[in-house]
Amino acid sequence: MGNEGVIAVEKALALLDCFKPGEESLTLTALAQLSGYHKTTVYRLMNSLERMNYVIRRDSGVYTLGPRLLYLGKLYEQSFHLASIVQPELHALATATGESATWYVIEKGQRLCLLRAEPSEGLRETRLPGTLLPLDNSAIGQVLRYWGLNEPLFDSMPDLPLFTSGMRDPHIAAFSLPVFGERDTLLAALALTGPSSRLILSMRDSGIGKLMKETAYRLSIKLGAQNVKQNKFYSL
């Protein structure tokens, strides 16, 4: 490939890098401003990316990321077997507590239920992996917003795991805390959800809180976090 081809590829990838949390939809003008490329160049490259399903051009003229990137992301996820590391921990947590254990990540300004383990019996909240929900004020939403998007939700370090009840459903409560990966960046919100009549705040300082912290600690270490042990983030 000639140098011009290499430059074109680099420019196309740079345009994809313009999409960030809070900037999931971008106009041609915005892409030109963010990338520093001429509008004509941006238009030509975005047309190529659109043909390959890396971006989608909406009827309004704005561009969003396309399904091809999700496909590649799933391949990347499988390449280091995320599910093989996380799923056993979720199953163990669900079995030990009798509640639903979930792995939530940020996806296009929302929270995505990526992995899930249900208790084997009893009343429980059921949610399918792949479900998208708002980044709300639930314990899960707060974890993703505070540690993932750096929103200033708290003046000081909050008690973990975070707890909310009745935020989306008056009958459902949730505990949640962050799991970190390489460079100590947020990977996911680890959540435990169940009926609000059974899952209550006082459990944070008892067995459930301890089990969740131990699970989040193990997962963070396995997935590449470096400082959670030294700074005693989970206070084990």
Shape: elongated
* Run of helices and strands: HHHEEHHEEEHEEEH
Amount of beta strand = 15-25%
Number of strands: 8
Main-sheet strand order equals 5-4-3-8-7-6
Name the poorly predicted regions. none
What is the end-to-end distance? 54 Å
Integer average pLDDT:
88
Number of helices: 7
Largest sheet: 6 strands, antiparallel
What is the SS-derived class?
alpha+beta
Name the helicity range.
Answer: 25-40%
Radius of gyration: 20 Å
Give a brief outline of the structure.
By secondary structure, this protein is α+β, with helices and mostly antiparallel strands. The chain has helices at residues 3-16, 28-35, 39-51, 67-79, 82-97, 139-148, 207-222; strands at residues 55-57, 63-65, 100-107, 110-117, 132-134, 162-165, 172-180, 186-195.
List the main descriptive attributes of the protein structure presented here.
alpha+beta; 236 residues; six-stranded antiparallel β-sheet; two-stranded antiparallel sheet; 7 helices
Explain what you see.
The protein is an alpha+beta fold. The chain contains seven helices and eight strands, in the order αααββααβββαβββα. The protein has helices spanning 3-16, 28-35, 39-51, 67-79, 82-97, 139-148, 207-222; strands at 55-57, 63-65, 100-107, 110-117, 132-134, 162-165, 172-180, 186-195. The strands form two sheets. The protein has a six-stranded antiparallel sheet, with helices on both faces. The chain has a two-stranded antiparallel sheet with strand order 1-2. α1 (3-16) packs across α3 and α5 (82-97) packs antiparallel against α7. The longest helix has 16 residues, at 82-97. The model has no long low-confidence stretch (mean pLDDT 88).
